[in-house]
Specification:
Order of helices and strands: EEHHHHHHHHHHHHHHHH
Structural class: mainly alpha
CATH superfamily of the largest domain: Tetratricopeptide repeat domain
CATH topology of the largest domain: Serine Threonine Protein Phosphatase 5, Tetratricopeptide repeat
Strand content: under 5%
Helix content: over 70%
Number of strands: 2
Number of domains: 2
Length: about 300
């Protein structure tokens, strides 16, 4: 369902929206009307974000956020309000103080399940937990097909569907890594598929505002990509890393990672590999976003020019 330009996750229990409104009423006084700026400040603090971090996520200055929260600056553009709501993880109606237009009574929020899959203690040490596991052969191809279908759903805007399938996909990817100690070709393929799954997790988690989990997934994707020994896989998941870094306002690091990955791809690009050229252009687009977020116009134009050259 789309509400006010934002995608409502199909699996998420939105009952907390009403709770949040109630909390605001009690804090401010039941008879008072909160301004948009006051709501921005409340939800920002609830998410544990500083004004500087929210400003970075919005591509604005810290002074802009401060003025919005104080009421010295009005936000009149709907696309800016939609982006504020997305970064604060509330609905547009909540941010505007309007009645909630939809309800979902089903308890289907799978983000906690994604968190459990990513933060399982077994992932911390194969030495400590390896003896308790009974690895079984897992065919990477069915996992790869499900992952690609989930990517297709993500690109079509069905983020809720992806959130629902990610816990199982992550567990399958982890099983692939545990059982990949056999033939070298299987080892590399298993880690390539795991990298793809964790890349999807990082991108999706960033989309729904779970920036810390997104970084964990991106790190796992990069580690798996390293073990795949495939430069295209590594370059591809580097986009997950830049995405996660952008989500937490680390624009310089995002720019550095994207440019490093592009340089890494240069030999494949020179050999005119179509997949390498496609990834090369995507990396320049991603780094252009990072440069724009840090308000570096010249670098942004240069990176967009390189992406345009790759596209041509």
């Amino acid at each position: 369902m789309v509400v006010g330009g934002t995608v409502a996750l199909e699996c998420v229990d939105w009952s907390w929206v009403g709770d949040s409104v109630g909390i605001l009423d009690r804090v401010h006084g039941a008879g008072d009307e909160l301004s948009v700026g006051e709501r921005v400040a409340f939800y920002r603090r609830r998410r544990g974000l500083s004004q500087a971090v929210l400003a970075g996520l919005m591509g604005k200055s810290e002074d802009w956020v401060s003025k919005v929260e104080r009421g010295d600056r009005q936000v009149n553009r709907i696309e800016v309000l939609v982006e504020l709501a997305r970064q604060l993880r509330v609905t547009l109606n909540d941010l505007m103080g309007e009645p909630v237009l939809f309800e979902d009574d089903e308890d289907n929020d799978d983000v906690p399940a994604i968190r459990d899959a990513l933060m399982s203690p077994e992932r911390l040490s194969r030495t400590l937990f390896g003896g308790a596991m009974q690895p079984e052969y897992v065919d990477p191809e069915p996992v790869a097909r499900v992952a690609e279908e989930a990517w297709h759903q993500y690109q079509n805007g069905s983020v809720g569907h992806v959130v629902c399938v990610l816990p199982g996909l992550l567990k399958s990817a982890q099983q692939l890594e545990r059982t990949s100690s056999g033939h070298p070709s299987y080892y590399r393929r298993a880690h390539a598929v795991s990298a793809r799954v964790h890349h999807l997790a990082a991108t999706t988690l960033s989309k729904v505002g779970e920036s810390d989990l997104s970084w964990i997934a991106a790190e796992r994707a990069m580690q798996a990509a390293d073990r795949s020994e495939d430069p295209l896989v590594l370059a591809s998941v580097s986009r997950a890393g830049t995405h996660a870094l952008l989500a937490v306002g680390r624009f310089d690091d995002a720019l550095s990672l994207g440019e490093t990955a592009a340089r890494w791809l240069t030999p494949q690009v020179r050999e005119a590999e179509p997949e390498a050229l496609s990834l090369y252009g995507m990396l320049f687009l991603r780094t252009a976003v990072a440069a724009a977020r840090r308000q570096d116009r010249q670098t942004t134009r240069e990176l967009l020019g390189q992406a345009d050259t790759a596209a041509r």
